[in-house]
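Feature request, filed as a ticket because there's no other form

It would be nice if the structure record came with a short human-readable summary line next to the tokens. Right now we just get the raw output. Example of a typical job, pasted below so the devs can see what we mean:
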Amino acid sequence: MRRFSSKAVFLCNNYHLPLLPSQPNTLIPIQSYSSTRFHDPPTTHFTSPSPPTSSLQNPSKFNPTHNEIPRQSSHRGSGFGLVRLENNNPEDSAATGHSHDEFAADVEKVYKILRKFHSRVPKLELALKESGVVVQSGLTERVLNRCGDAGNLGYRFFIWASKQPSYRHSYEVYKAMIKSLAKMRQFGAVWALIEEMRKENTMLIGPEVFVVIMRRFASARMVKKAVEVLDEMPKYGCEPDEYVFGCLLDALCKNGSVKEAASLFEEMRVRFTPTIKHFTSLLYGWCKEGKLMEAKFVLVQMREAGFEPDIVVYNNLLSGYSVAGKMADAFDLLQEMRRKGCEPNATSFTILIQALCSLEKMVEAMQVFVEMERSGCEADIVTYTTLISGFCKWGKIDKGYEILDSMIQKGHAPNQMTYLHILLAHEKKEELEESLELVEEMRKIGCMPDLNIYNTVIRMSCKLGEIKEGVQLWNDMEANGLSPGLDTFVIMIHGFLEQGCLVEASDYFKDMVGRGLFSASQYGTLKELLNALLRADKLETSKDVWSCMMTKGCELNVYAWTIWIHALFANGHVKEACSYCLDMMDAELMPQPDTFAKLMRGLRKLYNRQIAAEITEKVRKMAAERGVTFKMYKRRGERDLKEKVKAKKDGRKRRSRRRQWGGGRGRANLGVT
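Raw output as currently delivered:
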């Protein structure tokens, strides 16, 4: 393993930065940035106020922007774009912090029971009753957090606990359950729960409950629904104030709805007196999108309202310049901050370092790091993590280890995010052994791996065909009190599919469904699994998977049914495909035109007029109910089917030509040469 000794030389001695004689602590802007532009704009951090805000109280820390790392689709390509510098999410900390308190043993006992019997309610309730666990508010909250993304498991326990004598859910328990349901976007259940809270005790309903709902609506880009929460609050005896309105603005700006937030701010200025947090949220949103003109207008509005920019505002502007590729302006702003008596902090320098790292300007990034320390601003874990991320992104893992050693020497304990960037670099080079050694080293220094770490190492194991190692890591993860998330399940399912372990892949898929993690975003995984099972003549296993989805209450739309019916048809199971098509129509879902056309062709070949007539009659009726003529529906189906067949043939021809000529890109290059 390429691990540097802890006797590594202090990095600053290797980089020299000339200083202005008249201003010994002034950073000299790198002149080449005056005409530099980002070809690929870096993902830069902004310091956004999140009421109650820690960034205002301690501006040396970044405030996370609700971007979970890593998602399977988000970091596979680049891996290092966003350095998440601080985790203020109580849900995550509760899931990853393995505090051995009085409830630890009971929480694990309950969690195992929930996993075993979650689909059989009578047996689940009996097992919980016989477990000897005494229900308390603290225990219920811990169980909900232990269930993690598997909100269905937590909800089962929440319902059972509410039936126990001498027990009533506390405010914190309701809040945790609302967070879990809102995360699953079960907003109907959330409002039902709030109604239950009102009937139980109106004192249980506070502003924070509605803030949770606002944030979830905002993250789902349901802006109108998020705003409507303000109007719903008085119905529950809770009047919105400047704090709640600030939370709404913050949520909208963090989730890409800054235009709507700005309009809402102007509309509500009379109702809610503007505060510096309101202005800073808008500034953050515009800077995040690189809209500097709008950000400067907010700055003018802020000053007109009597608020002077503080370190949080300046750091947002620094981030805005970085996103827009205006590095010379960013360095000028750093000097302006000093002139106005607002000394740059660790966050200020780290923003610049991250922007330079994203441009592969590692020498310049180290120069900023050196200047930061020389100016008396001590680098923190965030700064070191940013540098490690930059070096690892560009394949310089050894340098990353060197900085890690220097960081530990200086008394800064690395966290999971620090190690994650090194692991991602190892994953890029398919270095599983080094990754496992690094995870072991994490444990030795007391930094327990979190879900992101496990996801990365498990994905690498599956990618390299070491599926047994992946299963061992999974078991280790659960033994350490971590619940697998949606990404973890998807990684394992694809890993088993790639190794041809179809039964195991099906078992993990059903477990994922049982925990309530399946959603429309996983239809691709469903399609791949069903087709793999049917190609391997495992019809009953595939039916079992579909039955599991039906019985576990998954919301299956027409696209899910289409995937299943087309998979059956494509693998020669025409009668089964027709049978499930009838089931779909019984569920008031009309088949897509090409699905109907495909089934009719298959039935004609089988000379099965009875089923064809039954399907046709139902389709005629449903088309009439929807105001569509059957002839138009049928004609469109035939047309769509022909277009798909043609597109498939054209794709085959293109691939054949590429193979014949050695690839289109190579031919283009030859032409240029």
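Something like this underneath would help us a lot:
The longest helix spans residues 630-661.
The radius of gyration is 28 Å.
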